[in-house]
Amino acid sequence: MTLPDSAEGVWSAPEALTIYQVRKLEASFSSSGLPRRDWLFDLSGVTEIDSAGLQWLLAVRNRLFSAGYRLVFVNVPSTIAGIIELISLDIRQNESFPELVTNV
Questions:
Q1: What pTM was estimated for this model as a whole?
Q2: CB atoms within 10 A of CB 14
Q3: Which of 23, 32, 38, 61 could connect to 70 by a Cys-Cys bridge, CB 3.0–4.6 Å?
C-alpha cells in the first residue's frame, strides 16, 4: 500500500478495500496527514470492496471536503463505479460526492 504522493496528491488503492485493510489504511493516512490540495484516488487496481471500504472512502472524502478540498476517483473499474454511484444518490442532495473519472 502506498501513501499519497504529497507533491501530487495521488494515491493508488490496493487490490482490496475491505474490513481487513481499512484499519491499516486509516492508520497510515492518519499518521501522514492530508495534503492541502485536492486528492486523486486511482482505483484501477481495486477488485474487491466491502461496506467498510466504502465507509473509509466516505470518511476520507468528508475530511477533505471539510477542509475545502475535493476527492476525485480516477481509473474506476465499472463494477466499483456502479457501487459508488449508487451510494452517491443519497448524498448528492446535500453535498458533493467524489467525482468519478473512468478514463484518464
A1: 0.73
A2: 16
A3: 38
Give the model's pLDDT for residue 98: 58
How far is Cα 24 from Cα 82, in angstroms, rounded to an integer?
Answer: 25
Give the number of other Cβ atoms within 10 Å of residue 98's Cβ: 23
pLDDT one-digit tens code per residue, 63-104: 888 888 888 888 888 888 888 777 764 444 444 555 656 555
Phi, psi dihedrals of residue 97, rounded to the nearest 5°: -110, 160
CA 63, CA 80: separation in Å to the nearest integer? 22
**Are the C-beta atoms of residues 48 and 16 closer than 8 Å to each other?**
yes
Residue 9 sits at φ, ψ, to 5 deg, of 70, 30
Residues 43-54, mean pLDDT to the nearest whole number: 92
In this structure, which amino acid lies at residue 24?
K
Parallel, antiparallel, or unpaired: how do β-strands 39-42 and 71-74 relate? parallel
